[in-house]
Amino acid sequence: MLRFSNFLFPESRDPDRDAIAIREAMEEAQLCEALGFEVIWLAEHHFDGNCAYVDPVTFASAILSATKRIKVGFAVAQVSLHHPVRLAEQMSLLDNLSGGRVIVGLGRGTAYNVYEYQGYGIPAEEALERYEEAEGIMLQAWTSPQGMRHEGKFWHLNIPRLRPTPFTKPHPYVIRAASSEAGALHLARRGVPFLMNVQSLETTAARLVQYRQTMLESGFDEPQVQACLTESWCWRNIFVADTDEEARRIAVPNFLAMQDQRKALREKIYREQGIIMKKETAPPARVDPDKALIAGSPATVAARMAELEATGIGGVIGSFRLGPMPADLAARSLRLFMEEVAPRFQATPQAMAAE
Predict the structure, then answer these.
(1) Is 286 strand, coil or helix?
(2) Domain boundaries, given as residue ranges, for the chain
């Protein structure tokens, strides 16, 4: 029972073409609604053109206003860059405007791009502590009708009452990101679902086994474990074409170009400032097209989706427009996926409507 969504992560290499990239991203969101995707996920990255719309809160508002059914999720809001009360208000407003179509994906912030923290005047080494304190503030603010006081390391607050009150009770739906094994198991001990970044199939399968076992060892029963797995999502780069050869010919160069673009400013900062947040001794799975890219005919992609379904994960977050890929090629891939791949999996809205 696999669920499908699209990660709207448009690249803009030329600042003079930002407006075009943003317009094309909005058109892709509307296409996703028409095709029957369950969720559109939005990223948050700053200053480098790797995510053209930059501010997912503002862009979510635009998408929700232009659609009627599809959910909009954050994968993720970089919480350490936000004031938690302001972010709680914004999410509550989106929850009201959309009638509950918001998934509040929370994370500490990038583990790679130090310039994002520098641009906001926040020490990168404070990111995790800021995130942990901010998440607690947001949850308390949403659920404290009598107001709240908070005395913490980063914020000292006295809030009469958060307004608007959330449409979804007791608060907007929240999910957390976990890019590491330790992060996933921490969430398993809390008994909450999670968003997994791009990993190989083997790592995904192994991590979900560990997640399941940790939940059981922490006192959760089998139905609770299954509920969390059903609400958890893994990220994959996906491209569908008529044949395997055509799909690889188009997708692989765009995927590799995307990886080069995403590390360009990071490496420039390292050359100029000597600062690097995370030094990797071996190429991670997320940059290897053999591990991080699913490209092929509808039959091939469906087989790969079935492998993911067998791991127990509830949903797939697909990035369909890869780097400099033209919008029309990504749109054709999206159509092929939802018309020829998704109907093979009962959990998709399109398949359920056909029953």
Answers:
(1) helix
(2) 3-75+179-354
Residue 85 to residue 75: CA distance in whole angstroms: 19
Its pTM stands at 0.95
300-318 average pLDDT score:
98
The string of DSSP codes covering 48-76 is: SSSSTT--HHHHHHHHHHH-SS-EEEES-
Residue whose token pair is 């075009």 = 20
**In the Cβ-directed half-sphere of 254, how many Cα atoms lie within 13 Å?**
25
Inter-CA distances, 2 with 157, 285, 318, Å: 42, 23, 12
Q: What is the largest CA-CA distance in the chain?
A: 61
Q: Which two tokens stand for residue 341?
A: 């791949």
Domain covering 3-75+179-354: architecture: Alpha-Beta Barrel (3.20)
Ranges of H-type helices in the chain? 18-35, 56-66, 84-98, 114-120, 127-142, 181-190, 201-217, 222-230, 244-273, 289-292, 298-311, 327-336, 349-354
Q: How far apart are the first and last CA of the chain?
A: 14
Task: Compute the average pLDDT of residues 318-336.
Answer: 98
Residue 152 CB partners (closer than 8 Å, separation 6+): 133, 137
Bridge partners, residue 151, by sequence: 156
In the chain, the amino acid numbered 198 is V
